C-alpha cells in the first residue's frame, strides 16, 4: 500500500474506531464484538508503524478510549490509568519479551486473567473508602462513589491500611447475574445488554445508586496505584499485600520465570474461561519487578512492561433445524433459531435469538442452512452469518397471524418488530402477570415466574384482578406450597393492595411508560380516574412526556378491556390514589443543580425538595441552569457556574426560593 492509500485507509479507520469507541466506552452499547473492534485498532496501529508521518495526537492509538460522562463529577487521576497493548498471537508475546529483554536482563512475569469489566480506581484514607472513579480517558474519569458503595465486594474499611492508598480494579457482573438481568429486560421488552462488560458499565454509571445495588456487581483489584509510606518491590508482592488488607484481588495470577511459561499460563487460562463464574477476554502478562518497570516506561498510551493477549471468540458451524416464534409481554413476535447443539465456551447451546424480521432478511437466514454461531461475550449465543444455504431452502417469512391466538400481526411505523394486535392474547398474559407482580411494580413477594406459570396453567389466574381473588385452599394445590408459604403469599397480595398509584400505573404494562414516567403521571394527576380522563395534550404538559408516550396512554385507557380491568381492581381494594404530597409551583420552569455538601440536607434530599416544588434537578451545569445550590467542596460545577454567570445560592437560598423556613 502506498502512502496516499494508507492515508485514506487511516482516516477511514479513525472515523470508524471513534464511532465504535463512543458506543463501547461512553454509551455501553457496542455493535461490534471486542475482537472485531480490536482488529480495527490493530490495523490502524500497523499502518501508523509503517508510515509514522501519519501518526497524530488524536489518533485512537495515542489515547485511552473513554471520556468522563456528563452528569458525574470529573476526577483527575494522580496516577494515569493506562490501557494495554493487545496481542492476538503467541508470536506477539514472544516479540514483547524480546523488546523487554533489550532493555532489562532476566525479566520475571506475572500472568493474570483479564477480567472483562469497567476499570475503576478506589481511594482509601486512613483505611476508609473515600472515592471511586472510572478510568475515563486515563487522565480524567467520573466520580461514581455513591454507586461503588453499593458493590458488596468493595470493602468500606481496610484495617491496617496506610494513610493513603489507591488501587485499581475491574468492576464486573457475574455471568449468573447477567443472565438474570437479561431475562428481566426481555420480560419487560427492554433492549438487553449485549454482554456482562456493558451491563457492568451501564450499572455502575446509573444516576440512581439503588439501581446499581440491584445489579449484583463484583470487583477484582489488579494493581496498586499509590500507597503512602509503603515500600514494595514487585507486582506479585503488592497483590499479596492488597489481599492481606482485605481487598478482593484477581484470583488467577501466576509468577513465571520465562516467556515460555507465560505462554503456557495463557493457554491454561484460555482453556478454563468457559468454566469461570465471570467473563474474561484475555490474559495479561506484566513485568513483575517495579524497578524494571521504571526502566521500561510507557508510550503515550501503553506501558511497555505489560501486554494483553486477546482470545478470539469461539465460533462453530451447525445446522439450523427450525425458527420458532415466541410472543412477548407487549405482543412482540420474536424469532429464535433452533439448531443442532454445539459446545461453545464450555457449555452446550442449541438456540439463539434472531431478533426480528429485518435481522433474518439481512443475513438471509433459512431453515436447513449451515450457520456460524458464537457466544457474544462468551455468554449469549448469536448467529454470526449463514455459511451456506441448505438444498432447496426458501427465504423465511414471518407469520401474518399470532402463533398463540391467531389474531393479525402488525408492524408499526418506525419499528422493526411485528406485534400481535390482540390485547387478550394468552401468550401475553403470563408475561403481563409476571410484570405486574415484579419488584419495581406491585412487588408481590413469592409470586415469581414459576408460581405465576402454575396459576395460569391451572386457570386460577386468567387476568390481573384474579390475583386478588386467590384463596388459601387454591394455593395449597400449587407445587411446593404449604400453609406457611400460602399465608405468606396472601399477606404479600394484601400489602400490594396499598401500593402507591405510580406503582400501579407502571404495573399495568402500558407501552412506552416506565417507572419514572409512571411517577410523573401519578404526581400530576393524583388519581387513576383523572389520568384515564386526560387527553394527550394534558399529558404532554408534563416535563419529560412526549407525544408517543401520551398517545400510548390515551390508547390504553380507551380500550374497553382497560375500563373493565380498572373496575375489577378497584372492587378488589387496590389503591387508585397517589399518596405523595402535592407538588408546589415555587420552582416551576426552573432547572437547579446541587453540588457540594449542604449543612442539613443530603444531595438527594435537596433534589427531592426541588422536584416537590415544581423544579427540575439536573446533574450538570449548562446555560439553561437557573441556579446552582452550592455547599462545601462544591468543585467543578461551581466553577462552571461562575464561568457562565449562573446565580449561585446556598441551602438557605434554596429555602428562600421556595418560601420555606428551614
Percent in strands: 15-25%
Overall number of strands: 22
**Net shape:** globular
CATH class of the largest domain: Alpha Beta
Largest beta sheet, briefly? 7 strands, antiparallel
Radius of gyration: 28 Å
CATH superfamily of the largest domain: DNA ligase/mRNA capping enzyme
Mean pLDDT across all amino acids? 88
Fraction of helical residues:
25-40%
Query: What fold name goes in the CATH topology slot of the largest domain?
Result: D-amino Acid Aminotransferase, Chain A, domain 1
What's the helix and strand layout?
Blueprint: H1 3-26, H2 34-50, E1 74-76, E2 86-87, H3 90-101, E3 109-115, E4 118-125, E5 128-134, E6 140-142, H4 145-148, E7 164-172, H5 175-187, H6 196-204, H7 209-214, E8 218-227, H8 235-245, E9 253-256, H9 259-272, E10 280-287, H10 290-296, E11 306-310, E12 315-327, E13 332-344, E14 347-353, H11 357-363, E15 370-376, E16 380-388, E17 409-410, E18 418-420, H12 426-437, H13 449-457, H14 472-475, H15 483-496, H16 501-507, H17 515-525, H18 528-533, H19 536-540, H20 547-558, H21 560-571, E19 591-595, H22 603-612, E20 616-618, E21 627-630, H23 636-644, E22 648-649, H24 651-658
Parallel strand pairs: 2-11, 19-20, 19-21, 21-22
Antiparallel strand pairs: 1-6, 3-9, 3-10, 4-5, 4-7, 7-8, 10-11, 12-13, 12-15, 13-14, 13-18, 15-16, 17-18
Helix pairs in contact: 1-2, 12-13, 16-17
Amino acid at each position: 500500500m502506498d502512502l496516499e492509500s494508507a492515508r485514506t485507509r487511516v482516516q477511514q479507520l479513525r472515523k470508524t474506531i471513534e464511532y465504535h469507541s463512543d458506543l463501547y466506552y461512553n454509551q455501553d452499547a457496542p455493535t461490534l464484538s471486542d475482537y472485531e473492534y480490536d482488529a480495527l485498532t490493530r490495523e490502524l496501529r500497523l499502518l501508523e508503524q509503517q508510515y509514522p508521518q501519519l501518526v497524530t495526537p488524536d489518533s485512537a492509538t495515542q489515547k485511552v478510549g473513554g471520556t468522563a460522562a456528563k452528569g458525574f463529577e470529573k476526577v483527575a487521576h494522580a496516577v494515569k490509568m493506562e490501557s494495554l497493548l493487545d496481542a492476538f498471537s503467541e508470536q506477539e508475546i514472544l516479540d514483547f519479551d524480546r523488546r523487554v529483554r533489550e532493555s532489562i536482563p532476566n525479566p520475571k512475569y506475572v500472568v493474570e486473567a483479564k477480567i472483562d469489566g469497567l476499570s475503576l480506581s478506589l481511594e482509601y484514607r486512613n483505611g476508609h473508602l473515600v472515592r471511586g472513579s472510572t478510568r475515563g480517558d486515563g487522565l480524567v474519569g467520573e466520580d461514581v462513589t455513591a454507586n461503588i458503595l453499593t458493590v458488596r465486594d468493595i470493602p468500606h474499611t481496610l484495617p491496617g491500611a496506610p494513610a493513603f492508598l489507591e488501587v485499581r480494579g475491574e468492576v464486573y457482573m457475574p455471568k449468573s447475574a447477567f443472565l438474570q438481568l437479561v431475562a428481566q429486560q426481555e420480560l419487560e421488552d427492554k433492549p438487553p445488554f449485549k454482554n456482562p462488560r456493558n451491563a457492568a458499565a451501564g450499572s455502575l454509571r446509573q444516576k440512581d445508586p439503588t439501581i446499581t445495588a440491584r445489579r449484583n456487581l463484583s470487583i477484582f483489584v489488579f494493581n496498586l496505584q499509590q500507597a503512602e509510606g509503603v515500600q514494595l518491590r514487585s507486582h506479585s508482592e503488592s497483590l499479596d499485600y492488597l489481599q492481606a488488607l482485605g481487598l478482593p484481588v484477581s484470583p488467577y495470577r501466576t509468577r513465571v520465570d520465562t516467556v515460555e511459561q507465560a505462554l503456557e499460563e495463557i493457554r491454561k487460562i484460555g482453556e478454563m474461561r468457559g468454566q469461570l463464574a465471570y467473563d474474561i477476554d484475555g490474559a495479561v502478562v506484566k513485568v513483575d519487578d517495579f524497578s524494571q518497570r521504571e526502566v521500561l516506561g510507557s508510550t503515550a498510551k501503553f506501558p511497555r512492561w505489560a501486554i494483553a493477549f486477546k482470545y478470539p471468540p469461539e465460533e462453530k458451524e451447525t445446522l439450523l433445524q427450525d425458527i420458532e416464534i415466541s410472543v412477548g409481554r407487549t405482543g412482540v413476535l420474536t424469532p429464535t433459531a433452533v439448531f443442532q447443539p454445539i459446545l461453545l465456551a464450555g457449555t452446550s447451546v442449541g438456540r439463539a435469538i434472531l431478533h426480528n424480521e429485518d435481522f433474518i432478511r439481512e443475513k438471509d437466514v433459512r431453515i436447513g442452512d449451515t450457520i456460524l454461531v458464537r457466544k457474544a461475550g462468551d455468554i449469549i449465543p448469536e448467529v454470526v452469518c449463514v455459511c451456506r444455504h441448505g438444498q432447496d431452502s426458501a427465504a423465511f417469512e414471518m407469520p401474518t397471524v399470532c402463533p398463540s391466538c391467531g389474531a393479525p400481526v402488525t408492524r408499526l411505523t418506525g419499528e422493526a418488530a411485528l406485534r400481535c394486535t390482540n390485547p387478550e392474547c394468552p401468550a401475553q398474559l403470563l408475561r403481563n402477570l409476571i410484570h405486574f407482580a415484579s419488584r419495581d411494580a406491585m412487588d408481590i413477594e413469592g409470586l415469581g415466574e414459576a408460581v405465576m406459570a402454575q396459576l395460569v396453567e391451572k386457570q386460577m389466574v386468567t387476568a390481573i384482578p384474579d390475583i386478588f381473588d386467590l384463596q388459601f385452599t387454591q394455593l395449597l394445590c400449587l407445587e411446593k406450597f404449604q400453609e406457611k408459604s400460602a399465608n405468606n403469599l396472601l399477606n404479600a397480595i394484601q400489602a400490594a393492595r396499598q401500593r402507591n398509584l405510580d406503582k400501579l400505573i407502571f404495573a399495568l404494562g402500558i407501552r412506552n411508560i416506565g417507572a419514572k414516567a409512571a411517577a410523573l403521571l401519578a404526581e400530576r394527576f393524583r388519581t387513576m380516574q383523572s389520568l384515564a380522563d386526560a387527553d394527550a395534550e394534558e399529558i404532554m404538559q408534563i416535563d419529560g412526556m412526549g407525544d408517543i408516550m401520551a398517545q400510548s396512554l390515551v390508547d390504553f385507557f380507551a380500550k374497553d378491556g382497560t375500563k373493565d380491568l380498572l373496575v375489577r381492581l378497584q372492587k378488589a381494594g387496590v389503591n387508585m390514589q397517589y399518596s405523595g404530597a402535592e407538588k408546589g409551583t415555587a420552582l416551576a420552569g426552573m432547572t437547579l443543580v446541587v453540588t457540594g455538601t449542604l449543612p442539613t440536607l443530603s444531595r438527594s434530599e435537596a433534589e427531592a425538595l426541588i422536584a416537590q416544588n415544581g423544579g427540575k434537578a439536573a446533574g450538570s451545569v449548562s446555560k439553561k441552569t437557573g441556579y446552582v445550590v452550592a455547599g462545601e467542596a462544591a468543585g467543578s460545577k461551581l466553577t462552571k457556574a461562575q464561568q457562565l454567570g449562573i446565580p449561585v445560592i446556598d441551602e438557605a437560598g434554596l429555602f428562600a426560593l421556595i418560601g420555606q423556613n428551614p
